[in-house]
């Protein structure tokens, strides 16, 4: 108790003397905890709305799309099936709003909401028996199109007839992912209304949901359904796909944050250890005085650990608050479940342990300070090395030589300082690499498999006419016919996208990362996600079922595939059966370099008299633009860490050489040269740390991005290191800023009256 | 039966190892200091006088021999036990003052009292009394760096006396001061001695040593002379009236 009072006085005085450094420690730790918490929130299902929506709506685990209504009684007897939703009749219609056309799946429902897979009405109300023109729209779809309650919802059926409907409600559902990741958009209407919009049964499909007893075990039910319905099945999806569709971007962001957070934690530990170690060295005399006053070794250790550990804990507390706030604001609008207590506890305890250990190790050394204050804690002295003498002989500036020698008078702190600067710099380089990768996506979309900037759907024109119009435009370099069909892999019970583009003779310029382009009928390319899903490798043959027709393809290469988690099979139109390929569903247009897609789109629309539907391809980098904000924030936090390390190194250098200053001046060095000596001592460590960090970062960043690409299904081959120019600028800025920071205390020290005492 | 001496050393030896070569600093010192005595330890540089007082305060470990403090043996104590002992029984004054740079004068003086378990109020009262006595009452909130050398040493003296130690060890307290400040500090030391404080003072300055009751001369780590300056005065601590005798 008595020691506590005395120690409190010491800690208060010490913190007051170094407010800036203390604040830096708190901020750096807070930044890292924030990053970790946000990453956990993102990585956890908590941010994935699927879990909440699925539970709330009593969702169906498996959805089966069939031509005709299936035998519900037989389905409900399948193993593991608890309840059946539907079957609901669903018709493909087109919603036309302000000239923009969006495909919609219009699903017929009863006025009484179903007990399984209930649409969760968030605004407005559910359908009523008299709502002949009413429609309830899935919320993400409505938000993307700016639809509100009471808005008109004009749909066109396949027969061309238009029907003015009105939005009466917006509802959430776990039946499918969010728009536009998951298309077509979903809207519910009364069965009577649907029958009026699309009278022909043959042009609609039947959708049935199976709610299982155990959601983890979908295979028996799916196998049973496939056996039972066989040819009738057009498409199937399970809850895993829906969940994946809802979480994709958050997950990537979360992984990035986790990577930065964990490495940042290492950097923070180094910064704290350096700060405490430097503090202990500069305070050797004060610590010895405390001992002569009656502090024991353990009490000094406790005192230092508590002081510096408390700063870290304060940082953790700030980070906790910031993390919650950032997660709350960043995920605005997403129903957010708080992160479960276990990972949160792990982050708090883990960070606290790291910070306390980082503070305790140098504090232990501080505790072992001998209580004899008179013994000067001089740095190990050394003679000028031969190199140094040679350097002086050839008239290198003496400040440079002396500074270089000073930089390494204390080996371990010097190495720790270099390392402490290298780690943040490495992370900054990795951040810049992510940035460069995103830029590369935007600047060279063909490298991520998006050579085509525009997609033309013939819509009301004959396909040949559409192709002719597109090819006639002067800025269109090539036109590739395309079709997208669902391919069912019966063993895997999953539907994947089969995308036919171009022909074997004239293939679309896919970005082939491994293997080769398809060159003959029956050859195909796969995304990494598909290879992983099927467990096949390049060179294997795979049997798929496309639109009911078996199709055996030979996978000859892997493409970089940013869509559908990479679960896409790419092939030539001639490989598809004629019924799927003729006429082409759409044409992908590769433009001349430098052509403005918007201008071409406008020309095409004008040329066709607005009869063509021309859409711009969405670049995946546009979806990931939030990553740039994260990168900037992380660079700020990492710079803080680097600054903390720099201040420590600078303070230590000053302290070690305070005594030398008088000698240097006596030797005839001007104050400017003295300052230069001190700055060189710190600056050399900075240059070494920054260059080492940048080199390490640049060498691993492409690999890291590719690793992430591989696990997310996009596939390796997208990672880019920052350009040499960016890297040079980053290094120069870091070193320059560091030298400026080091210059201020050095100038002050060089001008100050040299103290006469031993201090 | 007379009370045990405040300090009693038996054949005290300290040998440093300098690169494997043993360097004896103190070679068999037997020293008895009675309560209330003011002993000056003199000797040239390197005679082992500082090492001796550091060992008496537990700042340095003895190589062999015994140290008795207030009748109990202390040379066998652990580092922590020495620290606890210092809090209660020993006050230190150093050549370079050794004030904690970040703390105010007031905090520096209160620190030992707080460490010894005094309440903040007691510590404050003691500090106000001491600083008042030493003429520093108005500098309580100053930082040590703002004080002149003599003032810093007076603060250090106040700090050393904060816990009413049985033994005040002063290691060249005037070694870094000009003559005027030296006079001030010595006058203060004389005053606290008159109040009954036992003092062991290390100096190489004969004028400083002349203030003491007794001068012990060290040479090469051994006592070569131990003589009282005038008659040995042995008095009960803090008895009134002695001031007159001392001034005569």
From TrEMBL, chain A:
<feature type="transmembrane region" description="Helical">
    <location>
        <begin position="629"/>
        <end position="654"/>
    </location>
</feature>
<keyword id="KW-0812">Transmembrane</keyword>
<feature type="transmembrane region" description="Helical">
    <location>
        <begin position="22"/>
        <end position="43"/>
    </location>
</feature>
<dbReference type="Pfam" id="PF02687">
    <property type="entry name" value="FtsX"/>
</dbReference>
<dbReference type="InterPro" id="IPR050250">
    <property type="entry name" value="Macrolide_Exporter_MacB"/>
</dbReference>
<feature type="transmembrane region" description="Helical">
    <location>
        <begin position="252"/>
        <end position="273"/>
    </location>
</feature>
<dbReference type="GO" id="GO:0005886">
    <property type="term" value="C:plasma membrane"/>
</dbReference>
<feature type="transmembrane region" description="Helical">
    <location>
        <begin position="310"/>
        <end position="331"/>
    </location>
</feature>
<comment type="similarity">
    <text>Belongs to the ABC-4 integral membrane protein family.</text>
</comment>
<keyword id="KW-1003">Cell membrane</keyword>
<feature type="transmembrane region" description="Helical">
    <location>
        <begin position="414"/>
        <end position="438"/>
    </location>
</feature>
<feature type="transmembrane region" description="Helical">
    <location>
        <begin position="343"/>
        <end position="364"/>
    </location>
</feature>
<feature type="transmembrane region" description="Helical">
    <location>
        <begin position="675"/>
        <end position="705"/>
    </location>
</feature>
<keyword id="KW-0472">Membrane</keyword>
<feature type="domain" description="ABC3 transporter permease C-terminal">
    <location>
        <begin position="633"/>
        <end position="753"/>
    </location>
</feature>
<feature type="transmembrane region" description="Helical">
    <location>
        <begin position="725"/>
        <end position="744"/>
    </location>
</feature>
<feature type="domain" description="ABC3 transporter permease C-terminal">
    <location>
        <begin position="259"/>
        <end position="371"/>
    </location>
</feature>
<dbReference type="InterPro" id="IPR003838">
    <property type="entry name" value="ABC3_permease_C"/>
</dbReference>
<protein>
    <submittedName>
        <fullName>Putative ABC transport system permease protein</fullName>
    </submittedName>
</protein>
<keyword id="KW-1133">Transmembrane helix</keyword>
<dbReference type="GO" id="GO:0022857">
    <property type="term" value="F:transmembrane transporter activity"/>
</dbReference>
UniProtKB/TrEMBL annotation, chain B:
<keyword id="KW-0067">ATP-binding</keyword>
<keyword id="KW-0547">Nucleotide-binding</keyword>
<dbReference type="GO" id="GO:0022857">
    <property type="term" value="F:transmembrane transporter activity"/>
</dbReference>
<dbReference type="InterPro" id="IPR015854">
    <property type="entry name" value="ABC_transpr_LolD-like"/>
</dbReference>
<protein>
    <submittedName>
        <fullName>Putative ABC transport system ATP-binding protein</fullName>
    </submittedName>
</protein>
<dbReference type="InterPro" id="IPR017911">
    <property type="entry name" value="MacB-like_ATP-bd"/>
</dbReference>
<dbReference type="GO" id="GO:0016887">
    <property type="term" value="F:ATP hydrolysis activity"/>
</dbReference>
<dbReference type="Pfam" id="PF00005">
    <property type="entry name" value="ABC_tran"/>
</dbReference>
<feature type="domain" description="ABC transporter">
    <location>
        <begin position="7"/>
        <end position="245"/>
    </location>
</feature>
<keyword id="KW-0813">Transport</keyword>
<dbReference type="InterPro" id="IPR017871">
    <property type="entry name" value="ABC_transporter-like_CS"/>
</dbReference>
<dbReference type="InterPro" id="IPR027417">
    <property type="entry name" value="P-loop_NTPase"/>
</dbReference>
<dbReference type="GO" id="GO:0098796">
    <property type="term" value="C:membrane protein complex"/>
</dbReference>
<dbReference type="GO" id="GO:0005524">
    <property type="term" value="F:ATP binding"/>
</dbReference>
<dbReference type="GO" id="GO:0005886">
    <property type="term" value="C:plasma membrane"/>
</dbReference>
<dbReference type="InterPro" id="IPR003593">
    <property type="entry name" value="AAA+_ATPase"/>
</dbReference>
<dbReference type="InterPro" id="IPR003439">
    <property type="entry name" value="ABC_transporter-like_ATP-bd"/>
</dbReference>
């Amino acid at each position: 108790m008595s020691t506590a009072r005395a120690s409190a006085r010491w800690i208060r005085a010490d913190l007051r003397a170094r407010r800036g450094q203390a604040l830096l420690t708190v901020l750096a730790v807070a930044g890292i905890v924030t990053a970790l918490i946000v990453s956990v929130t993102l990585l956890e299902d908590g941010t994935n709305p699927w879990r909440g929506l699925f539970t709330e709506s009593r969702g169906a685990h498996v959805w089966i799309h069939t031509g005709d209504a299936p035998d519900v009684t037989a389905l409900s007897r399948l193993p593991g099936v608890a309840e059946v939703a539907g079957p609901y009749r669903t018709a493909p219609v087109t919603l036309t709003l302000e000239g923009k056309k969006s495909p919609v799946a219009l699903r017929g429902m009863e006025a009484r909401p179903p007990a399984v897979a209930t649409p969760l009405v968030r605004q407005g109300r559910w359908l009523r028996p008299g709502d002949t023109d009413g429609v309830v729209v899935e919320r993400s779809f409505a938000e993307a199109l700016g639809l509100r309650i009471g808005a008109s919802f004009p749909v066109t059926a396949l027969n061309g007839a238009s029907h003015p409907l009105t939005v009466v409600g917006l509802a959430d559902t776990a039946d499918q992912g969010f728009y536009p990741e998951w298309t077509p958009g979903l809207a519910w209407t009364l069965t009577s209304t649907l029958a009026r919009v699309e009278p022909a049964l043959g042009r609609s499909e039947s959708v049935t949901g199976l709610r299982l007893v155990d959601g983890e075990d979908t295979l028996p039910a799916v196998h049973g359904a496939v056996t039972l319905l066989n040819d009738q099945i057009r498409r199937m999806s399970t809850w895993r796909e829906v969940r994946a569709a809802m979480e994709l971007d958050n997950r990537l962001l979360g992984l990035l944050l986790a990577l930065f957070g964990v490495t940042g934690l290492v950097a923070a530990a180094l910064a704290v250890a350096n700060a405490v170690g430097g503090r202990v060295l500069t305070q050797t005399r004060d610590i010895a005085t405390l001992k002569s006053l009656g502090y024991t070794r353990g009490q000094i250790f406790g005192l230092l650990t508590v002081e510096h550990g408390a700063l870290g804990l304060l940082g953790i507390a700030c980070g906790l608050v910031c993390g919650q706030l950032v997660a709350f604001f960043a995920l605005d609008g997403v129903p957010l479940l708080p992160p479960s207590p276990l990972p949160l506890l792990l982050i708090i305890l883990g960070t606290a342990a790291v910070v306390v250990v980082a503070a305790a190790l140098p504090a232990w050394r501080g505790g072992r300070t001998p209580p004899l204050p008179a013994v000067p804690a001089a740095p190990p002295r050394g003679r000028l090395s031969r190199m140094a003498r040679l350097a002086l002989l050839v008239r290198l500036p003496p400040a440079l030589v002396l500074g270089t020698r000073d930089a390494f008078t204390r080996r371990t702190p010097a190495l720790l300082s270099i390392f402490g600067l290298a780690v943040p710099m490495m992370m900054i380089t990795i951040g810049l690499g992510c940035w460069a990768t995103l830029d590369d996506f935007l600047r060279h979309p063909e490298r991520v498999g998006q050579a085509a900037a525009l997609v033309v759907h013939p819509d009301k024109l004959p396909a040949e006419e559409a192709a002719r119009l597109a090819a006639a435009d002067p800025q269109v370099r090539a036109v590739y016919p395309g079709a997208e069909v669902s391919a069912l892999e019966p063993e895997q019970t999953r539907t994947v996208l089969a995308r036919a583009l171009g022909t074997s003779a004239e293939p679309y310029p896919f970005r082939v990362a491994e293997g080769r382009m398809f060159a003959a009928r029956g050859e195909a390319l796969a995304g990494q996600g598909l290879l992983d899903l099927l467990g096949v490798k390049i060179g294997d043959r795979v049997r798929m079922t496309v639109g009911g027709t078996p199709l055996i393809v030979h996978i000859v290469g892997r493409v970089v595939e940013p869509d559908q988690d990479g679960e896409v099979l790419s092939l030539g139109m001639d490989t598809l059966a004629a019924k799927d390929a003729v006429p082409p569903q759409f044409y992908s247009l590769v433009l001349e370099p430098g052509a403005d897609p918007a201008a071409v789109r406008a020309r095409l629309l004008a040329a066709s008299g607005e009869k063509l539907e021309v859409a711009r391809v969405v670049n995946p980098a546009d979806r990931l633009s939030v990553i740039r904000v994260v990168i900037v924030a992380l660079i700020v936090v990492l710079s803080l860490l680097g600054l903390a390390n720099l201040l420590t190194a600078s303070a230590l250098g000053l302290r070690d050489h305070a005594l030398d200053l008088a000698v240097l001046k006596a030797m005839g060095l001007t104050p400017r040269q003295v300052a230069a000596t001190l700055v060189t001592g710190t600056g050399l460590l900075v240059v070494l740390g920054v260059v080492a960090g940048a080199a390490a970062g640049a060498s691993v960043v492409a690999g890291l991005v590719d690793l992430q690409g591989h696990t997310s299904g996009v596939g390796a081959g997208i990672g880019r290191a920052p350009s040499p120019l960016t890297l040079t600028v980053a290094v120069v800025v870091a070193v320059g800023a560091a030298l400026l920071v080091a210059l201020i205390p050095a100038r002050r020290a060089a001008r100050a009256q040299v103290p006469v005492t031993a201090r | 039966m007379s009370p045990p001496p405040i300090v009693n050393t038996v054949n005290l030896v300290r040998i440093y190892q300098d690169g494997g070569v043993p360097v004896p600093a103190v070679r068999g010192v037997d020293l008895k200091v009675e309560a209330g005595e003011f002993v000056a330890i003199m000797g040239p540089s390197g005679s082992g006088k500082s090492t001796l007082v550091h060992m008496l305060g537990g700042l340095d470990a003895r190589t062999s021999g015994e140290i008795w403090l207030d009748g109990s043996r202390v040379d066998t104590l652990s580092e922590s036990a020495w620290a606890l002992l210092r809090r209660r029984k020993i006050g230190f004054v150093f050549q370079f003052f050794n004030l904690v740079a970040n703390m105010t004068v007031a905090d520096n003086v209160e620190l030992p009292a707080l460490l010894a378990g005094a309440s903040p109020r007691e510590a404050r009262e003691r500090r106000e009394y001491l600083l008042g006595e030493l003429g520093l009452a108005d500098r309580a909130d100053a930082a040590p760096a703002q004080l002149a050398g003599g003032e810093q040493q007076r603060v250090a003296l106040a700090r050393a006396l904060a816990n009413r130690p049985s033994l005040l060890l002063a290691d060249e307290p005037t070694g870094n001061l000009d003559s005027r400040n030296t006079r001030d500090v010595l006058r203060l030391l004389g005053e606290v001695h008159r109040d009954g404080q036992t003092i062991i003072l290390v100096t190489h300055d004969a004028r400083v040593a002349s203030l003491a009751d007794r001068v012990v001369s060290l040479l090469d780590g051994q006592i070569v002379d131990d003589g009282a300056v005038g008659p040995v005065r042995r008095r009960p601590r803090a008895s009134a009236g002695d001031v007159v005798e001392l001034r005569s």
